[in-house]
Amino acid sequence: MTARLKAVLVSVLLAAALAAAQTSRVEFPRSIAAGDALSLSTTGNGKATLYIVGPGQALRRDLQLGDKVAFGVDEIHNAGHYIVVLAGPSFSETAELDVTARQPSALSFLAKPSRLPVDRPDGISGVVYVFDPFQNLVVQPTNVSFELSESAGPTRSRTVSTRDGLAWVRMDSAPKAGAAQFLARVGDLTEKRIVQQVPAEPCNLRMNAHRSGNRIELETDPLRDCRGNAVPDGTIVTFKETYQGTESTVDVPLKRGVAKTNMPVYEGGLISVATGVVMGNEIQTKDVR
Amino acid sequence: MTRGRLIALLITVATALLIAIGTMFPNPFALALATGGAGLIRPPSSPRVAVETLVQQIGHREWRVAYNSLANKNEFTEAQFIRDLTGSYSSLRSYSTLDGFDLHSLHVSGANADAQVSLRWSSVVGTFQDVRDLRVTRVGSQWQVAWPIVREARVPPQVIPVNYLRWDVIYRGPEDDWGAQNVESPHVRIVDMHPVDRGGVILLGELLNEDVVPAFVTVKATLVAKNGSAMASEDAFDKMSHVLLPKQVTPFRIDFHDVRLSDVDSVQMDPSASLIAASADPVIEIEDQKLTGLPNPMLSGRLVNQSGQLVNIAHALGTFYDSAGQLVWVSDGYANRALLPEIPVPFAISVPTDLYSKVSSYRVISSTYSSNRL
Q1: Do A114 and B184 touch (CB under 8 A)?
Q2: Mind listing the pLDDT tens digit for each residue in B141-179?
Q3: Which chain B residues are Cβ-neighbours of A263 within 8 angstroms?
Q4: Which residues, other chains included, contact B11 with Cβ-Cβ below 8 Å and sequence gap of 6+?
Q5: What is the set of domains in chain B, with CATH numbers?
Q6: For chain B, percent of residues with pLDDT exceeding 90
Q7: Residue A183's domain spans which residues?
């Protein structure tokens, strides 16, 4: 394209823009809320077409200049920045329109993890996305209240303002095991998640032994973590008996809080107990009565 | 003639040659097993022939013929003889076939002979040996084998109360919101990993389920070359226990054949865990574990089912450490008989000869399969 042709085109566009600015045929609001009805007055004569193009949505209306043109409730429902074009046989006008989200009506609440050990600093994270009735992200700052309540403990709460439609928080897990309710609240809206706070590594693993014929009955004390929470049933406890270069082992799941088994008696043997990477006490078979 | 045609011709000629050799000089035992060859079974005119004939009959599962040929058949019934060889309950032994045998130390003394026969049974998880010491006696002009019967223990009919512990899982439904909570996968951790060069690269390690729920676990390893490219990727398969209860530790071994450790720059380990419905039973005691020395180092012991549930197949996994607590080997073995409540069943795990002197301690775990598990 030659420089001369470019200059001519730019001049024509500038002239058209000036003319449009001087004789606007329709008045648009700068901003509306998503889902609002929109009524526009037009001036002039002749036919024209109105286009409204926005995020995920495009509307078209054929109209007679001088008449009113209306968009119903919910018709423009996607929040975002829109371009409005009024095009006639010999003119075109453009404008911009912002559609903002309505009041919050839904929360998406991601709580992680759903299961974690007790006493874990910043172990629980909650993220809330605030949406309006049309599933638009509400980007206006909104206060979100996070509440973490245990069955037998105080409720801890924290209020965070959303930024770009999103609010997040980190909270410590409680020292007491159990299911905690993790609640996110915006006004009357609430979303609830359950966070299972489980015992941490076992503490003070201790077993007792007594003879029963040619066997030794072994039983652990109720197994608890360092905060006194009962370790869940099913946790594997390993008993090991060593004697003269020979070993016997048995992996026993906790049932009703204790692990119990029986092993053969070998004089001079040594019995130890462990769970995971935690070691317990040792017993000499000669000391077992 | 093109090169391809020449190769095809060579293969055809070699195949024809091998068929001809196999036809003219058949392996008697293989032939007998393959054809059911009663015609090839010779009269037991010597102790060796008597033993070979009996093994062939066992290989064909001709139980009645084999039983009737025994010198000591009045000591047990035919059903007991069959149970000795195939197991009373469904077990690895029940699904195995006789692959071959070795006859050792045949001593003839007048009308008696002693022999040791090692029966090689093949199963889906490999072969296992069944070694029997046989007494062969001459009766008239023929020799008869006295079978050393192993009477499988029977558990009397009874009701065994079990405090049954089980986990079930309910996942998020398809109609739930994307932000809705799902159940958390179990947390597992590799607590030890050690690569060794044994012709190929072998990765040895241990994996801990540090969660409070059972986990189905896998370990994937990728070898990375010095230029950063992935050389090979493998999963731990049968040298690990894939179901881990809370706080349980499994060894794992991943073999990379044809890769030199000197070519490897780094190893990427990828353990994964998913929730699984599982039960805490049965409880298996592993008693009398003992490491026997050269020439065939072996960790042997006995598995004892402390629960009431019948275990059809039991898998023993051994982890071997040096004096510094470093992993030196991971190996496994199977019990070829079913585990009945409180009835010990032997197992053995082989240890490479060159590693035996390094082994200072070991740990054995078991995993089980029960066909009637609910």
Answers
A1: yes
A2: 888 899 999 887 777 777 877 777 888 877 777 766 666
A3: 285, 287
A4: none
A5: 23-146 (3.10.450.50), 169-278 (2.60.40.3230), 280-369 (2.60.40.1620)
A6: 33
A7: 106-198
